[in-house]
Amino acid sequence: MGSLIYFNSASLDGYIAGPDGRWTWATPDAEVHSFVNRLLAPARTHLYGRKVYDVMKVWDDIPLDDLPPAEREFALQWRDVDKIVYSRRLGAVTTRRTELRSTFDADEARRLKDASADPLAIGGGQLASVAARAGLLDAVHVVFCPVVVGGGIRFLDEGLRLDLELTDERRFENGFVYLGYRVRRG
């Protein structure tokens, strides 16, 4: 049986995008990018909401020769995973190995987890919060960026409660800090 892992970068005050919707302050350097590549490499299926998919789909056709090594590695990984996008507004997906669903179905996600020997990755705070409320989230990974943005899109929904056990941590030269947690069950 697989697991469902949530990874994202966040400001120190818990936002994945600022009040203006921008997240350029979270752009990883080569060291952080390489670490994230290794962290996400085992996940063979990624689950995304529309906003995260809109950000991520650039990796599908960006010219590889134009990318530094860590970004090239990520682009190749991203192209090689199955993706499911949940959106009521998106009419079609344009990337390889991608399916579109109108809504997140917790039972379907549970079946995907049960059928997989590999972890599944979930992207986006709102979608991860829905999965957490359904009891599906198994791990939370966050790279904190050395910035306070004062508002915006939250890492996880306000009011969501998860009990977590620290499993890993790492400091990076650029001031970013990684924390990995296992979700404790009842």
UniProtKB/TrEMBL annotation:
Origin superkingdom: Bacteria
Molecular function in Gene Ontology: 5-amino-6-(5-phosphoribosylamino)uracil reductase activity
Pfam families: RibD_C
SUPFAM superfamilies: Dihydrofolate reductase-like
Bacterial bifunctional deaminase-reductase C-terminal domain: residues covered: 4-177
GO BP annotation list: riboflavin biosynthetic process
Descriptive protein name: Bacterial bifunctional deaminase-reductase C-terminal domain-containing protein
Organism of provenance: Microbacterium trichothecenolyticum
